[in-house]
Amino acid sequence: MRAMVYRGPYKIRVEDKQMPSIEHSNDAIIRVTKAAVCGSDLHLYHGMMPDTRVGMTFGHEFVGVVHEVGASVRSLKPGDRVMVPANIYCGSCFYCARGLYSNCHNVNANATAAGALYGYSHTVGGYDGGQAEYVRVPFADVGPSVIPEWLDDEDALMMTDALATGYFGAQLGEITEGDTVVVFGAGPVGLFAAKSAWFMGAGRVIVIDHLNYRLEKARTFAHAETYNFVEIDDIVVHLKRATDYFGADVAIDAVGAEADGNVIQHVTAAKLKLQGGSPVALNWAIDSVRKGGVISVMGAYGPIYSAIKFGDAMNKGLTLRMNQAPMKRQWPRLLEHIKAGYLKPNEIVTHRFPLEDIAEAYHVFSAKLDGCIKPVIIVGDQ
Length: 382
Ligand SMILES: [Zn+2]
Ligand SMILES: [Zn+2]
What we know:
Blueprint: E1 2-6, E2 12-16, E3 28-36, H1 39-45, E4 62-69, E5 81-84, E6 87-88, H2 94-97, E7 116-117, E8 134-137, E9 145-146, H3 153-159, H4 162-172, E10 180-184, H5 188-199, E11 204-209, H6 212-220, E12 225-228, H7 235-242, E13 248-253, H8 263-271, H9 280-288, E14 289-297, H10 310-315, E15 319-322, H11 327-339, E16 351-354, H12 358-366, E17 375-378
Parallel strand pairs: 10-11, 10-13, 11-12, 13-14, 14-15, 16-17
Antiparallel strand pairs: 1-2, 3-4, 3-8, 3-17, 4-5, 5-9, 6-7
Helix pairs in contact: 4-5, 4-11, 7-9
One zinc ion binds near residues 40, 60, 61, 86 and 162.
């Protein structure tokens, strides 16, 4: 089969690769029809994530058609159109029983801190992903769902991570009626978090980024008030001023490890790899939220420490809530919102590339060329 293959930082190829096969009776093989490139794939592409191995196929956002199922699979059959959550999880361990699918204890032999994802570094299991013609899906009775007939492939594709993660980020913020919510990062996850904040009763939603075309999307798609931190002297002071010197009630970090905006953080994290990421956005969140406020983090960070303003967070009595999103937990409510017409997820898709051109997709997305917000990869004949 044809598959995206990682050959080192900034080196993405499409190569012939061995077809995946059923390795366990609860596996399924999915023929991928659409995949997406995620902001967190860019951390891999940039060589930011430890133990990202040459030869890996990336891609934790994909939808497709069931090609083959193992002997014990009951909920899927060949021909079903399915969406597959980014997390791989067993469905029955201590964590899965509590809905903490991203913290599953049975799927990642390499680490006790993290569960598993498709197509990511070996720190989250080292499973090949869906930027390929076919992918092996373990625990096929647990993760994938048949896509409802009324739902487009691209809308379903957004549910596999970006939309579910954005919604989860807003949920972690414990938003109550009338709250002021500030979202750092106007990428796909930040846009979906901002949109979701309204569903949860926010009275005011503010989005911060440095790319004007993305802030424009935050205004039109998420109806948010926006500020470009590059055009403002001190974004924290600005946010204080904009909230009667109180601060926002809730701050959401939808940026993660590769935040720009502070040279020392960027050099120690991105260049020297002395930190698990440059937590500029998280520190802005800590500084700009009011005392007793809530900070939600679902931007991706690496496994080693980051220089976070912990003392300030403590003295302000903040609540910090964070996790990788358990995608499927968000699906029932998201389907209701989409069906009711409150949300059209693929409005954030700006680019579509065939699988053979996936290197171009990574380049355009990484370099933020041509107004790129979310690239989708079209696999095979549609
Ligand atoms: Zn993703
Ligand atoms: Zn589990």
